[in-house]
Amino acid sequence: MPTDTLLALLVFAAVSSITPGPSNFMLLASGANFGFRRTVPQILGIAAGFGSLLLGVGLGLGAVLTAVPALHLALKLAGAGYLLFLAWRIGSARAIGSGATLPKPLTFAEAAAFQWVNPKAWVAAISAMAVYVSGTAPFVSVILVSAVFALAILPSLAVWTGCGLVIRDLLSDTSRLRLFNLLMGALLAATLWPLLHQGP
Question: Model confidence over 135-146: pLDDT tens digits?
Answer without folding.
Answer: 777 788 889 889
